[in-house]
Amino acid sequence: MPSPIPVSRLLPRDIYPCVDIGTCSSPLAKYSLGTTLTVPVQRLHGKVASRLWSTVIHWKELRALQPVGSGGFGSVYRAEYRGDTVALKRVKKCTKNKLASRQSFWAELNAAHLRHGNIVRVIAATTCVPADFGDESSIGTVLMEFVGSRNLQQVIYGCAAEPLGEDRWLRYAADVARGLRFLHSHGVVHLDIKPANILVSSEDVCKIADFGCSLTLDHGCEVSSISPHLSHVGGTYTHRAPELLKGEGLSPKADIFSFGITTWQLITREQPYTGDRQHVMYAVVAHGLRPSLQEHPAFGSELGRQCAALLSRCWSAEGRCRPTAEELLPHLEQLRSQV
C-alpha cells in the first residue's frame, strides 16, 4: 500500500523528485538489492558531511538479536551487522490504528539523511523482510547506530540513582538543544522529546532517538493546523505543547516546550504532573498548568532562579514567546559557566 505521507516528507529534496513510486509498498522498495541512496556531499556548519543510508538490509549479515526495549509502535533489539554493533527497530502493525503505525514507520526516516553527534544515525531501512526474519506484526525495520541501553528516563528515575549534579544536567540539556538546533535547521520537528527518547552513550553524550512522531516542515514554516490524517502526531501528553493538544499550529517551538519539561525533570528528578490524563491535558491548555518552579529547592539558588526563568520561557503558552534552539544554547553555556 502507498505511504500515507508524501515521499517529500521522507527523503531529501534532491532525491525525491526523481523517485518513481508507482504502486510499490514504499519509496524504499523500488531499489534493487544492494543499492543505496546517496545525497551529494554538502557543507554543514563548516564541516563536510556525507549523507548516506541504505535502502536494503543485508539479512545474512545480521546476527544475534537481543531485546533492548519496546514502545507503543515498535521493539528495539541489539544486533551485530557487518561486524558492528547496531540497534534494530521493528515497527509494529497496530491493529487499533493501522494508519498511525504506518505513519510511524515512515516518520522514522525523516532524519535518516542527517548526520549529527546528538542525533541517532540511521544505517538502513526496509519494508522487505525475509521469511526467516519475518514478523507478521511488523510493518518495517530500521537499522540504527547502537548508542547504548541507557536513556535519560533511566538516568533520572532508575534504581541506581546516578548523580545528576548541575554541570551534568546542564551538559545533557545542551546536548539535546544542539540536536534540536540541527534538526530544526533542516526542517525536521521531533514532536516527542522526553527523557525516554534521549539515549545516553558510553561517552555520556545525549542523542535524540525515536522519530516516529516527527514531521518535516517546508522551509521551517509553521503548519497552521494538524491534518486529521496525521494520526501519529502528538507525542506524549505530559510533554506536549498546548497548540498540539488543541490541534492548532505546529512549528519547531513545540519541541522547545517538550525540552523545557524534560529539563525540569533533569533538575528535579520528579514527575512533571500527577492525576488523570484528561485533567492534566485540560489544565495545561485552559489553566496554564506547568511543573512547579517554587516548591523544589533546586530553584532556590541564583542559578536555580535563572534556570526557572529559562524554563518559563520554554513552556510559554504562545510558541512565538519561546526561544529557538539556537537561542537556548548561549543561555545554557552561560549557566554552565557559573557552576
List the helices and strands and how they pair.
Elements: E1 36-44, E2 47-54, E3 62-70, E4 74-81, E5 84-92, H1 98-107, E6 122-126, E7 138-145, E8 150-151, H2 152-157, H3 166-185, E9 188-189, E10 198-200, E11 206-208, E12 215-216, H4 242-245, H5 253-268, H6 277-286, H7 302-314, H8 325-336
Antiparallel strand pairs: 1-2, 3-4, 4-5, 5-7, 6-7, 8-10, 9-12, 10-11
Helix pairs in contact: 3-5, 3-8, 5-7
What does this structure look like?
With 339 residues, the chain is an alpha+beta fold. The protein has two domains: 7-145, Phosphorylase Kinase, domain 1, CATH 3.30.200; 150-336, Transferase(Phosphotransferase), domain 1. The protein is built from eight helices and twelve strands. It has a five-stranded antiparallel beta sheet. Strands 8-10-11 form a three-stranded antiparallel beta sheet. The longest helix has 20 residues, at 166-185.
